[in-house]
Specification:
about 140 residues; alpha/beta; five-stranded parallel sheet; 6 helices; about 20% strand
Length: about 140
């Protein structure tokens, strides 16, 4: 994220998950530590639908050990995150971290359901359509 006159106020980062598939846990962790050296808040972007369950859980656990507190699940490509996915994610992350969900969010009911599961933020390119539903209701 960038503010026009102040520079970056945070980093949204997609790690190299190939390191986890190859069991290079230290390399995966070192990459995230390098990003954290910026001193800016770091959000890690993880697309659950593109990772095997073990790799997905490992990625979250390593990020948590490194002090990452902001996560985005989904990247706008692939299957939408479901309420069941959120429940699984929250078992690993706990409720004290910031969770953003992105991808496939097209209806107001989806937004409400996701917030009801305990996430903090949604990202959607269907903002206008969703707010039209709000106006009708």
């Amino acid at each position: 994220c960038f503010a026009k006159d102040k520079g970056a106020n945070g980093i949204e980062y997609i790690p190299n998950f190939i390191n986890l598939y190859k069991r290079n846990l230290e390399t995966f962790a070192a990459e995230i530590e390098q990003v954290k050296l910026s001193g800016l808040p770091v959000s890690i972007i993880i697309n659950k639908s593109k990772l095997q369950k073990e790799v997905f859980i490992n990625a979250i656990e390593i990020c948590l050990e490194l002090g990452i507190k902001n996560f985005q699940f989904g990247d706008g490509f692939g299957h939408p995150i479901t309420s069941n996915d959120i429940a699984e994610i929250l078992k690993v992350t706990g409720s004290e971290n910031q969770i953003k969900v992105v991808g496939g969010i097209k209806k107001l009911t989806q937004v409400i359901d996701l917030f009801d599961t305990g996430i903090n933020c949604v990202g959607t390119s269907n903002f206008y359509e969703i707010f039209q539903e709000v106006k009708v209701n």
